[in-house]
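Working notes for the structural subgroup meeting. M.R. asked for a predicted model of this chain before we commit to crystallization trials. I am recording the input and output together here so anyone reviewing the notebook later can reproduce the run.

Input as submitted:
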Amino acid sequence: MHASLGETSPQGLTEIDAPTAAAKKAKLDDIAKFVKVFDVLKQEIMDSLKDEDISDDAREWIDAMLQYTVPGGKMNRGRTVLHALTRLRGDAGVSEAEAHPAQVLGWCVEFLQGFLLIIDDVQDGSTTRRGQPCWYKFEKNGGPVGVMALNDGILVERFIHTILKTHFKQTPHYVELLELFHDVTLKTELGQLLDMSCDWGQPDLTKEGTTPDFTRFTLAHYERIVKNKTAFYSFYIPVKLAMILAGVEEKQGDGVKAILLDMGSFFQKQDDYLDCFGAPEVIGKIGTDIEDLKCGYLAVQALSKATPEQLEVMKANYGRKDPANVKAVKELYSALKLDEEYKAWEASEATRLRGEIAAKFGEQPLGGVLSDLLDKIAGREK
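Returned structure, recorded in token form:
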């Protein structure tokens, strides 16, 4: 399951964590401005399709599909682009004319997220996303969208390039932007391959006497998965886009990428924890990592700590759909005190990351960008 970077239901846009009324209003205004840019981009995409030889009902399908799959949640990935650019510009500030390209690129990140989630939900057999049915489960035209969602996901990814061509073809960084989205998309899908490789050679667990193959369930393999599958598109690309717009040279950002990838690993471990211990009504989805035989952080930790008897419990229950099997795995996690250990690790890792940011960047604007990101995710419950 892809990490959700603080996503909730579309209705959850009013569920603001900010401590004051002024801060709440500022956040709502920020989200509203960002959503308006999506409305413009969607219309531009629909206008571009007028020259394509497709039917009216196909156009209507695309319009509805984009509205359902792209906006929603807190949209933190996309909004980070402008927030990071503002930090990088410091006292110079960001004009309205400069803010718009950042918002457009932010939506390119959200389109990438939408594409990945559509495909991931089909592959994982998930049921809910952002507090509503996954797109492939959504009832439309008399039945569920089903495998049509796979083609829809590809279309969403292609529309990123429609947006880039429309808004950045005449800019000096057009090629750099194209290559960045190409590279990050490739890395993310390679991470998905690594994730799904844990299914290779797995027996049919519905048959009597079969047990999972945990050969690939190692911390090294897990870290490789999350770096590629989560960290690049969730943390690296939003900040890198802001650096490109701000004209920050690569050497000035030396060390930024490594910290962002560490944040991505930190975030995915949070997501794996919440998949098991988080409340669905809070996180906006029903966790299925245990049923889906996922190489998740808790499973890797359990396998590394389990006694021979506890290992047999994992073999007998992990990767099975029956609620009794899921309950047995969660009880094993509790017996191994994974909940307590995770919380201690999370606090320690957040402290470590803060120290590394301070040591490498001090009061520099890039340090502020990284600290802002870390503050958003440290201790999150959804």
